[in-house]
Amino acid sequence: MNKVIEADFLPRETNVAFSWLDSISDSIRRILIVDNDKNTTHLVFEENDPTKAYQSARNFRPDLIFLDVVMPDRDGGEIAAQMRADSALQHTPIIFLTALVTRAEANAGLRIDGHRFIAKPINVQELISTIEAHLPARATS
User: Fold this and answer.
1) What is the pLDDT of residues 30-70, one digit of tens each?
2) Three-state DSSP state, 106
């Protein structure tokens, strides 16, 4: 049985690329996935070009970032360091995606540069659990 996952992950800033969303409520969660494999990134806003990852994060202002470790031109560690140096992004949780480790290693609580990681291929239930565990809690009115 196939499950369909629908998500409302939309940008929060008003800029040229996302200006049509100005009237959307701030209660919507945003997730950015940076991965050069387009098959990995079809659930949420995606950036498949690692050289554009930082600017996409600045424009999109995600609540959580999934970041591939091994990509052409720039690796995930470089991009994460650039995001950590930016005051607008430094508190955004980053989860690395990598095929360099086993699922057991990922589940053992090991970290890459202090960030949690998920082993590829990605298990959808693990992805959902990771999102739920790492999205910052929203203040309730």
Assistant:
1) 777 777 777 665 556 788 889 899 999 998 888 899 999 88
2) helix
pTM above 0.70, yes or no: no
State the sign of the Cα–Cα–Cα–Cα dihedral 8, 137, 132, 60. Answer: positive
Separation between Cα atoms, residue 123 and residue 119, nearest integer Å: 9
Q: How far apart are alpha carbons 66 and 131 in whole angstroms?
A: 10
> In the CATH hierarchy, which fold is given to the domain comprising 29-134?
Rossmann fold (3.40.50)
How far apart, in whole angstroms, are the C-alpha atoms of residue 93 and residue 2? Answer: 29
| Spatial separation of the C-alpha atoms in residues 54 and 52, rounded to whole Å | 6
Model confidence at 135, in pLDDT bands (50, 70, 90)? confident
Where do the structural domains in the chain lie, given as residue ranges?
29-134
Q: Return the sign of the alpha-carbon dihedral for residues 53, 135, 94, 98.
A: negative
Percent of the chain with pLDDT over 70: 71
